[in-house]
Amino acid sequence: MTSATLTVAAARRGNPWARRALILAAWLAFALFLLLPLFVVLSEALKQGLGTFVDAILEPDALSALKLTVLAVLISVPLNLVFGVAAAWCVSKFEFRGKSLLVTLIDLPFSVSPVIAGLIYVLLFGAQGYFGEWLSDHDIQIVFAVPGIVLATLFVTVPFVARELIPLMQEQGTQEEEAARLLGANGWQMFWHVTLPNIRWGLIYGVVLCTARAMGEFGAVSVVSGHIRGVTNTLPLHVEILYNEYNHVAAFSVASLLLLLALVILLLKQWSESRMSRLNTPADEE
Amino acid sequence: MSIEIRNVSKNFNAFKALDAINLDIQSGELVALLGPSGCGKTTLLRIIAGLETPDAGNIVFHGEDVSQHDVRDRNVGFVFQHYALFRHMTVFDNVAFGLRMKPKGERPGEQEIAEKVHELLNMVQLDWLSDRYPEQLSGGQRQRIALARALAVKPKILLLDEPFGALDAKVRKELRRWLARLHEEINLTSVFVTHDQEEAMEVADRIVVMNKGVIEQIGAPGEVYEKPASDFVYHFLGDSNRLHLGDDRHLLFRPHEVSLSREAVEEHRAAEVRDIRPLGAITRVTLKVDGQDELIEAEVVKDHDSLTGLARGEVLYFKPKARQPIVHG
Amino acid sequence: MSRRISPVIPGFGLTLGYTLVYLSLLVLIPLGAMFLKTTQLSWEQFWAIVTAPRVLAALRLSFGAALAAAVLNGIIGTLLAWVLVRYEFPGRRIIDAMVDLPFALPTAVAGIALTALYAPSGLVGRFATELGLKIAYTPLGITLALTFVTLPFVARTVQPVLADIPREIEEAAACLGARPLQVFRHILLPALLPAWLTGFALAFARGVGEYGSVIFIAGNMPMKTEILPLLIMVKLDQYDYAGATAIGVLMLVVSFILLLLINLLQRRIEAP
């Protein structure tokens, strides 16, 4: 074997010691950063046995927090889903001036602190806000009430679906849609029978990420919530209250409920991702 | 159904894709739009289909101006270059799509659709693939499914965009002949786009040679090959040699349009043999002539007298067969 | 050749209109309101608020910790991406799936979990205390929390790019006599840098604004471990809307300038 082939082989496999060291380092980072926090949540929650754990979750305030979290998810996810499809449609199927600016604007909520996301709604709808007087005259409460929580959740989850769909739809192009139109489909038929099935795994993937964030949002919701127990508390806020009251076991019990949901979300994400990559293998020459 | 293209122009920003195109296509004809990439042939095809709106001009189908008609009402079958099969549908559902999209009153029942689809799949000889998905098919199979799907709605016109472009050489040849036969059977007015002159010559009744947004020549395959209307057409339709005659004049001739001899014969020019390549039935000889850097390629039958015992470096005499000298400058 | 609107694909006006109205109502107008609110302050007032020592301390902490976390992430994320793409080993699929955990896990849960780990009585904190290292309730703890929540950014942006680099390029370099480190330095690094910077910028931006995971582990002592988003909360609790708004605008402007700089850097790298 010449020295060139040796070097090639080495570049391919890498130095076996370097390889082992890197894998070990990755395992360590994984254990320390990801596994350990997970383990702590569960062990703290079960410190005083399964009974206390179940009690903490079934307690009325916890249940009402769960209900509010579910409500926020059920409103914000479908709205951002429709928005995501519309935004991805106009960005990926058409050329127009200002397109890159629009894409930047869609991503904007990602680079705004969640606390600011809460703050802006307080400035608009709070008692001293721009619409505060009008709202109180009409007996409508947004901030420190459920609508505020929904709005804040909506804001922080705006980009999720659009972000997943834009690259996917750009890659898929418009030919299948054109083919559908040539074969006599009208706009809705084309969207329903061709576009939607093609993007469905990307859509699910975006919805999964959106749900995760909507369920777990803390900062933005914290600003507009007012922390009224049993009324404007979401699950993450409930965790905070319990924790600050030094009721650690209860805090970690509710936290582990959220952790389990997060694991379910990871599974769904993994699943939709693998389906998406399978569907998107380019359909030309083998 | 005949197609008339009247004064069609199309710009993409500052780029002139089509410049006042006029073209008549007879009913039942198979026409090739031939040209290099960027010559506007695909744009013209998409305008005929209604996938693109021209900036000026009209498209007339059988006497009726369809320029303002929606793509759905033109009744055009279109086969995309990469087929654009619906990736999430089976072969059967792909072919059935057009029938299922028909308005309630005209839509056949599922039973009738199934019969129709299997009939079409039998025609393209792929009925056994009806439950597969596009990604499980080979390129040639996808191509034929795309054709079956286009034909399902009984189009009056069939348009094909580089129908063999994405296939390997052997499959391409088979499919070409198959398409030509199919066209004879169903006798549908058809237009296809290609950049491959051999393909156009083999399949089409008439060839439309395009370059830079204009039509260079329209004619039967033999006509455009034998009587090219311009230098461009001449070069595009086959290999060519250029022999300088001095005073900015030169002669164009194809490699096979040459007479070769080992001895000095009248009107023949001397040249040095640079290379000898047996290519099967013919042999190609590369020649260097004094006074020009461009080499001359000559193709003769493999058992030609002049080739016996010929070696590189020897002198050979050649004479282009008649073609008018062209003046440049 | 730029393709204009395809005449057969419908819905341009509808979808663009809907997108613009939705974004305006939910994002643009409310953000605009914040900037409008600051105009109620005079320039001197605004300057006094944002240059108050407590604000400046929080500003340094927020941006410093976010920067440190992004750098740390640049290392760990690249390591994870490299190992996941290049090696086959036991547990690869689990690690690959779990890298996204920080995105799926509510930040408050991450916050209390990390605090429980790194507090002086915690699982890791105990050892650290023995070594004389205090993690929770210090900037170090804040940096660790930010590293956790932003962990997937660098790993997930670098991973696909690394997977797409054809092996032939490295092999070609090796054939031309490059040693493994030279291959990394001259072939892989330039190819990965743009994606790495994107991940870095995303992690940094998220780190600056992060609230939920930090407030539990920070201890929240003014001048020492108080982050900017918390300071906004404090001002809001005191009904100091103008103050909160001024800090919010400050945060957005500084983040924007830094992201712009990263973007410019990225363009210079990508330019041939």
Automatic annotation (TrEMBL), chain A:
One of its GO terms (molecular function) is ABC-type sulfate transporter activity. Residues 66-269 form the ABC transmembrane type-1 domain. One of its GO terms (cellular component) is plasma membrane. It is a multi-pass membrane protein. The chain crosses the membrane at residues 21-42, 62-89, 101-122, 142-162, 203-228, 248-268. It is found in: Cell inner membrane. Keywords: Cell inner membrane, Cell membrane, Membrane, Sulfate transport, Transmembrane, Transmembrane helix, Transport. Its main location: membrane. The complex is composed of two ATP-binding proteins (CysA), two transmembrane proteins (CysT and CysW) and a solute-binding protein (CysP). Part of the ABC transporter complex CysAWTP (TC 3.A.1.6.1) involved in sulfate/thiosulfate import. Probably responsible for the translocation of the substrate across the membrane. This is Sulfate transport system permease protein CysW. It comes from Pseudomonas mangiferae.
UniProtKB/TrEMBL annotation, chain B:
Keywords: ATP-binding, Cell membrane, Membrane, Nucleotide-binding, Sulfate transport, Translocase, Transport. Residues 3-237 form the ABC transporter domain. One of its GO terms (molecular function) is ABC-type sulfate transporter activity. This is Sulfate ABC transporter ATP-binding protein. GO terms for cellular component: ATP-binding cassette (ABC) transporter complex. PROSITE patterns: ABC_TRANSPORTER_1, ABC_TRANSPORTER_2. It comes from the Bacteria. The lineage of its organism: Bacteria, Pseudomonadati, Pseudomonadota, Gammaproteobacteria, Pseudomonadales. The keyword Isomerase does not apply. It comes from Pseudomonas mangiferae. The keyword Iron does not apply. InterPro entries: AAA+_ATPase, ABC_SmlMolc_Importer, ABC_transporter-like_ATP-bd, ABC_transporter-like_CS, Mo/tungstate-bd_C_term_dom, P-loop_NTPase, Sulph_transpt1, TOBE-like. Pfam families: ABC_tran, TOBE_3.
TrEMBL record, chain C:
It is a multi-pass membrane protein. Keywords: Membrane, Sulfate transport, Transmembrane, Transmembrane helix, Transport. It comes from the Bacteria. It comes from Pseudomonas mangiferae. The keyword Ubl conjugation does not apply. The chain crosses the membrane at residues 12-36, 56-85, 97-119, 131-155, 187-205, 241-265. Residues 59-262 form the ABC transmembrane type-1 domain. GO terms for cellular component: plasma membrane. This is Sulfate transport system permease protein CysT. The complex is composed of two ATP-binding proteins (CysA), two transmembrane proteins (CysT and CysW) and a solute-binding protein (CysP). Part of the ABC transporter complex (TC 3.A.1.6.1) involved in sulfate/thiosulfate import. Part of the ABC transporter complex CysAWTP (TC 3.A.1.6.1) involved in sulfate/thiosulfate import. Probably responsible for the translocation of the substrate across the membrane. The keyword Transmembrane applies. Its main location: membrane. InterPro entries: CysT_permease, MetI-like, MetI-like_sf, Sulph_transpt2. GO terms for molecular function: ABC-type sulfate transporter activity. It is found in: Cell membrane. NCBIfam families: 3a0106s02, permease_CysT. The lineage of its organism: Bacteria, Pseudomonadati, Pseudomonadota, Gammaproteobacteria, Pseudomonadales. Belongs to the binding-protein-dependent transport system permease family. CysTW subfamily.
